[in-house]
Amino acid sequence: MPNIAHTYYPQQGSLVVLGAGESGVGAAILGKDKGFDVFVSDKGAIAENYKNTLLSEGIAFEELNHSEERILKADLVVKSPGIPEKAPLVKALRAAGVPMISEIEFAAQYTDARLLCITGSNGKSTTTMLTYYMLQKGGVDVGLAGNIGKSFAWQVAREKHAVYVLEISSFMLDDMYHFRADVAVLLNITPDHLDRYDYKMENYVASKFRMIRNQTAADYFIYCLDDSEIVKGLEKYSTKAVHLPFTQEQIVNVGAYLDEQKDIQINVPNKETFAMNIEELSLQGKHNVYNNMASGLVAKAQELRNQTMKESMGSYVNIEHRLEHVACIGGVNYINDSKATNVNSVWYALESFSPDIILIMGGVDKGNDYEMLRDLVKSKVKAIVCIGEDTVRIHESFEEDTDVIVNSSSMQDAVEMASHLAQKGDTVLLSPACASFDWFKNYEERGDKFKEAVMEL
């Protein structure tokens, strides 16, 4: 059975895709293959590779403009997750009653694959990649999609798999209504993207819990029992799915926990139990114990063999731009954590390293509350080098907690300053807590520039 009953959305007619990035172009191709009259519209410039794909597929498109009159006549709209609800065109489509959904929701109509879906404020990419790696090692016919890898819609159209591991953001969830996750993973909920949620935490929490809507008693809900926002949310949002909590602070009969010997214990009903010492994990740090617990529960729910799980969890190499070791120069370790675009990610990063840290941070502030970092900054950070255009709040937040806070004029400048401040045994950590698009196109470019600057030292 497909993951959405077909009757919810039009199955023919005019399909408009807003946004011509990875997800948009994938949705356009799937729509074309399913017989829709497809039109792609992007208010920005379309990247050359996506433009060439649309041309070769014979799909009509426009860039640097939205032809509103044409778009409002659509039978169905697939919207890029990056377009906010308050955009005038989105408001106009809502007012006109045109159904508007995410690429994930659109593609789920056309597949009967098992969907293993991972969301959370932090650790999504690591957990998604680790789960995918484990299933691949176990010989599962698995695809990787969502916020990562090739578009889910494109894969459903052209590269079918029996199982998909999907990294799902809150922005995607906002446009998902009838989608059903066979396995839903909720890693944590900490303040992020609050500018998209009227600066109300409860709106952001509600978005994350959309993941468990439509789950049945045959499905699994995996979540962190140590996360206060999740625990609060469980009182408000319910699911018939089998609950599999994971925790490092208590013992659970079903789910995953850490025993006194520091062994991760995983128990899923009617499956073989699993145990592995945290010293054997390839990804170290408290946050990665959580990520391994979550991935391990998904793998167990998929009936992976213990040996496969153990080998995978012991050999997995982390993704680029997430606590990525770049180099050790003069006894100083340089770490690229450019993917840390919120305060909680930086907390995880600081927690992962011993003192003394020279922290490079800053960028586009999304309404950050830096209070949660103060104790770690006091105890571990000996200097902060600011990047980005707006550094005032970083200075105000930490001026009493660390001896040195300086501004830089470029990433190269920041890395050179950090290298002068660092001594043998120190760590230079790029973990910005902010979005990147004042100085950079995205966090990847920011991380790449950091790595280039380090290699030039």
TrEMBL record:
Q: Which domain of life is it from?
A: Bacteria
User: Sorted alphabetically, which SUPFAM superfamilies does this protein's record hold?
Assistant: MurCD N-terminal domain, MurD-like peptide ligases, catalytic domain, MurD-like peptide ligases, peptide-binding domain
Residues that, per the record, bind ATP:
G120, S121, N122, G123, K124, S125, T126
- Pfam families from the UniProt entry: Mur_ligase_C, Mur_ligase_M, MurD-like_N
The record's Gene Ontology cellular component field reads: cytoplasm
Q: Which residues form the signal peptide?
A: none
Which family would the database say this protein is a member of?
Answer: Belongs to the MurCDEF family.
- The name of this protein is UDP-N-acetylmuramoylalanine--D-glutamate ligase
Q: Which organism does this record belong to?
A: Sphingobacterium wenxiniae
What is the taxonomic lineage of the source species? Bacteria, Pseudomonadati, Bacteroidota, Sphingobacteriia, Sphingobacteriales
